[in-house]
């Protein structure tokens, strides 16, 4: 049973920069929007990644850690591709596709595979910060964060960057008890190592 993890935050909050401490042989990046990395280090990327490319790679994973950057574009690009379609069917399909991807990670990948969804945020009418989706119709059918046990928030004050690991009442962050401090460095390799230690995934790999 693989583990999907969401890292959400505004553009510029340090989501992509959090990959900086991985080595090239440690992580695979599904680069949905084909962006350049915000640091000089070279990492393995699949550009123009879509659901088909992602699932094909995860069916026979060669690595233990994968990152979808930025995952909300999977929904956004599908909506653009189907912009001329009328009716509500496309909204259902968009919600179903992202749900099926997460479900595949949980049921179709090995126990020690972790897939990180780097995802933009949006603010609701009540002021709460949540994972960005492609419209209220999708929100009514799918609470995206509900499909994840770990949702971290990338934050910045313009001087430093960090992750928040629990909700402050105004966002949808969450993580298991005693896994993290409330505020940690925006270091995704540290997050990955901590999750593996917490769930004893390295022990499973050795067995």
Task: Describe, in short, the structure shown.
This protein has 207 residues and is an alpha/beta fold. The chain has 6 helices and 10 strands; from the N terminus they run βββαβααβββαβββαα.
What characteristics describe this protein?
8-stranded mixed beta sheet; 207 residues; alpha/beta; Rossmann fold; 30% helix; 6 helices
Describe the structure.
The chain has 207 residues and is of the alpha/beta class. The chain has a single domain, classed as Rossmann fold, CATH 3.40.50. Helix content is 30%, strand content 22%. It has helices at residues 51-59, 72-81, 89-108, 136-141, 188-198, 201-206, and strands at residues 3-8, 28-31, 44-47, 65-69, 114-119, 121-123, 129-131, 150-156, 161-164, 183-185. An eight-stranded mixed sheet has the order 3-2-4-5-1-8-9-10. A two-stranded antiparallel sheet has the order 6-7. The longest helix is centred in the middle third of the chain and has 20 residues, at 89-108. The radius of gyration is 16 Å and the shape is globular.
């Amino acid at each position: 049973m693989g583990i999907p993890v969401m890292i959400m935050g505004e553009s510029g909050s340090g989501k992509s920069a959090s990959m900086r401490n991985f080595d090239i042989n440690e992580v695979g990046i599904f680069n949905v929007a084909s962006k350049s990395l915000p640091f000089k280090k070279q990492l393995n990327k699949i550009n123009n990644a879509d659901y088909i490319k992602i699932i094909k790679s995860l069916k026979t994973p060669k690595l233990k850690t994968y990152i979808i950057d930025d995952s909300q574009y999977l929904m956004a690009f599908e909506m653009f591709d189907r912009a001329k379609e009328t009716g509500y069917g496309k909204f259902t399909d968009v919600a179903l596709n992202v749900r099926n991807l997460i479900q595949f990670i949980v049921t179709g990948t090995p126990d020690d595979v972790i897939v990180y969804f780097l995802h933009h945020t949006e603010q609701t009418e009540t002021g709460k910060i949540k994972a960005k989706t492609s419209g209220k119709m999708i929100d009514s059918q799918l609470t995206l964060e509900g499909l994840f046990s770990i949702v971290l928030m990338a934050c910045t004050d313009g001087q430093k960057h960090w992750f928040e690991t629990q909700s402050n009442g105004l966002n949808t962050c969450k993580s298991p008890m005693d896994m993290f401090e409330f505020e940690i460095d925006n270091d995704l390799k540290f997050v990955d190592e901590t999750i593996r230690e917490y769930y004893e995934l390295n022990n499973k790999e050795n067995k």
